[in-house]
Prior knowledge:
This protein is an alpha/beta fold. It has helices spanning 12-24, 36-39, 58-64, 79-92, 111-122, 125-138, 177-189; strands at residues 3-7, 28-33, 48-52, 70-73, 96-102, 143-149, 151-153, 162-165, 174-176, 198-203. The strands form 2 sheets. The protein has an 8-stranded mixed beta sheet with strand order 3-2-1-4-5-6-10-8, with helices on both faces. A two-stranded parallel sheet has the order 7-9.
Amino acid sequence: MMKILILGAAGQIARMLTNELLNKTDHSIVLYARNGHKRLTISDDSREFIVDGDFKDRDELIDAMKDVDLVYINDMGDEESTKTIIDAMHDAGVRRVIAASVLGIYDEVPGAFGEWNKRMIGGSPRMHSQIESARMLENSSLNYTLLRLTWLYNQADNTKYLITQKGEPFKGAQVTRQAVTQLIIDIIQEKSDKYLQASLGVGEPDTDWAKPSFY
Length: 215
């Protein structure tokens, strides 16, 4: 049994992950979010704990990491926050982290879809922050798994995902949040070290298109 800290617990994938952890595992969960008590509700008070906190509050983060085995970061769009989280993990002695990033941080998306993706998000300040955040995590000496997510949508019961490794061309113009949630569960439950020190491109099989179907 593990204790898992979800940073950004009010996000869509974070909420799905919370539900899956409660339904399919015995793990306990610390839900960390701004105004968490207003935005989140608990269904099992023996296994869920809410912490109101900001990603830039190092002391609050360290406190929330007490006895935690694994941290999930739902968003890495602010490098100052990422640095604070990494520093807090070092201070708290927590080594294992799974973090959600975006596709294109290594310029790894080929073809027409790569061009479309660059037009949509390539030059944005948020993209710059994602690139910096990923670099910090990869240089942090933590046991990280970085998830480079393609364009997200919701579809109940569609949990199909496809993984590419760092250095390989990215595949998949879209993927469901349900599939990303399933992947995170699979990574958490994996006993081997195959996902450690890994940066995984995450798409949906058979969606190698010039843009997502919903654009």
